């Protein structure tokens, strides 16, 4: 019997590569005749990928191949990197992808059948390569079903009105989008929709190409986003949707940080259940000194135990990830460590899923990245929203207004390529959000706890995501 081979093409960056590898693991577990090659694109900014690829369990090494691609010659430079350049940079890999597929063993093997490409939400240029090989394309969408609907909505709008989508949204208005239960304020739309350049057109053009594929896997589960998923499935112009999440890396890659990990876990072990508020803003999340001081004052005044992942922002003129502080006291209020001794801990790197899974953690102040959102849901920890970039404002809105699973610090805070100096969020507003978050009697806590159990059941045999993944495998094998 022939083996079917899928080629996965995630976008550059750990936030896209990790869920891709995790869904690949689930797929090969489900069908013994299926194997997967993951083609890895990189950007100089990302340095963790080599150590991550080495960590892939030997249990999967015979059926999952991680194949790094050499960087193409391109005019795109890191010094001028933005959303437009990012999409162009991915497109410049088309030749590398074609060569890699042509040179692999399955391209000429009689026992292996190339079954299709599974592309990331930002890698639709690779549909052209799949078409050259005469094979179907599928999408692995690493954000929410609601966000998928938002992207498709604006793609439809661009056909009706103009490629310049941003011309048709008033800053103080709201937008009716079928995958959201409530009208979405324009201020909570992804920044890329609102910018006055080609990137908004390029963004919605990805959605246009989604419609050319044979199916879309989404990293969500039916019980979490039932409204959004129904809206997508009711639209006959959208390919079949497969909610297969929550797809998470449960191993969490703590091996390289053993000492830091042990110190954090020991500190949490000493705290009462649900007593600690955890603050973490993702791999790209950081704040300037004046905002750091407001957060510190809020934490001090709140009286709660806190664990705070505090990162140094990159230089204004460079596109870099935040780095570690050698001495965080330089940006914190004078005497802050002395006054919060025993009650608070400031860290750099954070083993986020392990922290969220610890019984002492009772709340999560988060940037609302979709991976972080799913980790908080799986851990049963409610969120206080503080989005920064990408689609995080829309995620925050959905969590607060549609799902009732978060409290708001901010839903429209924005710090991305185009907005580097957002208005200061004052300590009083932050403290108010933390108090609401940590209130043991709030309805949000009960709902998150209920969703925690549903998120785990979805992946078990017979669960909604287990069944959806099975349907996807059936589709691949038929095609």
Q: What's the overall geometry?
A: globular
Q: State the CATH architecture of the largest domain.
A: 3-Layer(aba) Sandwich
- Helix amount, in percent? 25-40%
Rg calculated over all Cα atoms: 22 Å
How does the major sheet shape up?
7 strands, parallel
| Main structural class | alpha/beta
Task: Report strand %.
Answer: 5-15%
- What's the CATH class of the largest domain, please? Alpha Beta
Q: Give the full name of the CATH homologous superfamily of the largest domain.
A: Glycogen Phosphorylase B
Can you give me a brief rundown of this structure?
This protein has 479 residues and is an alpha/beta fold.
Architecture overview:
By secondary structure, the protein is α/β, with parallel strands linked by helices. The protein folds into two domains: 228 residues, Glycogen Phosphorylase B (Rossmann fold, 3-Layer(aba) Sandwich), CATH 3.40.50; 196 residues, Rossmann fold, CATH 3.40.50.2000. Helix content is 39%, strand content 14%. The protein is built from 18 helices and 15 strands. The chain has a seven-stranded parallel β-sheet, sandwiched between helices. Strands 12-11-10-13-14-15 form a six-stranded parallel β-sheet, sandwiched between helices. α6 packs across α8, α11 crosses α16 and α14 crosses α17. The longest helix is centred in the first third of the chain and has 17 residues. The radius of gyration is 22 Å and the shape is globular. The mean pLDDT is 90. It comes from Nicotiana tabacum. Belongs to the UDP-glycosyltransferase family. Keywords: Glycosyltransferase, Transferase. Its EC number is 2.4.1.-. It is an enzyme of class 2 (transferase).
């Amino acid at each position: 019997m022939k083996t079917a081979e899928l080629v996965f093409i995630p976008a550059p960056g750990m936030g896209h590569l990790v869920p891709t590898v995790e869904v690949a693991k689930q797929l090969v577990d489900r069908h013994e005749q299926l194997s997967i090659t993951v083609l890895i694109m990189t950007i100089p900014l990302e340095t963790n990928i080599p150590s991550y690829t080495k960590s892939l369990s030997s249990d999967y090494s015979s059926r999952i191949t991680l194949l790094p691609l050499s960087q193409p010659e391109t005019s795109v430079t890191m010094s001028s990197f933005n959303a437009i350049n990012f999409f162009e940079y991915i497109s410049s890999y088309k030749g590398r992808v074609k060569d890699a597929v042509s040179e692999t063993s399955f391209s000429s093997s009689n026992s292996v059948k190339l079954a299709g490409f599974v592309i990331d939400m930002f890698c639709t240029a690779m549909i052209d390569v799949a078409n050259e090989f005469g094979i179907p394309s599928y999408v692995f969408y690493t954000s929410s079903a609601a966000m998928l609907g938002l992207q498709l909505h604006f793609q439809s709008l661009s056909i009706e009105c103009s490629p310049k989508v941003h011309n048709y949204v008033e800053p103080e208005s709201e937008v009716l989008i079928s995958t959201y239960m409530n009208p979405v304020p324009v201020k909570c739309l992804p920044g890329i929709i609102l910018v006055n350049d080609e990137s908004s057109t390029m963004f919605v053009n990805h959605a246009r190409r989604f419609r050319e594929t044979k199916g879309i896997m989404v990293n969500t589960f039916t019980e979490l986003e039932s409204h959004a998923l129904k809206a997508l499935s009711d639209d006959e112009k959208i390919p079949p949707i497969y909610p297969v999440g929550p797809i998470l890396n449960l191993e969490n890659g703590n091996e390289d940080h053993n000492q830091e990990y042990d110190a954090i876990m020991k500190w949490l072990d000493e705290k009462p259940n649900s007593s600690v508020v955890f603050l973490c803003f993702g791999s790209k999340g950081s704040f300037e000194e004046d905002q750091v001081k407001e957060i510190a004052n809020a934490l001090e005044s709140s009286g709660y135990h806190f664990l705070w992942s505090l990162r140094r922002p990159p230089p204004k003129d460079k596109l870099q990830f935040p780095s570690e502080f050698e001495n965080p006291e330089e940006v914190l209020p004078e005497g802050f460590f002395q006054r919060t001794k025993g009650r608070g801990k400031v860290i750099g790197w954070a083993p986020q899923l392990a922290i969220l899974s610890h019984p002492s953690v009772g709340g999560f102040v988060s940037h609302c990245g979709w991976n972080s959102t799913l980790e908080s849901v799986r851990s049963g920890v409610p969120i206080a929203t503080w989005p920064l970039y990408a689609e995080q404002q829309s995620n925050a809105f959905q969590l607060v207004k549609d799902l009732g699973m978060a409290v708001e610090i901010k839903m429209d805070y924005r710090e991305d390529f185009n907005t580097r100096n957002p208005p200061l969020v004052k300590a009083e507003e932050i403290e108010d959000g933390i108090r609401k978050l940590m209130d043991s009697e709030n309805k949000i806590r009960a709902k998150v706890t209920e969703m925690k159990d549903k998120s785990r059941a979805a992946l078990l045999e017979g669960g909604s995501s287990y069944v959806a993944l099975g349907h996807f495998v059936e589709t691949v094998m038929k095609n």
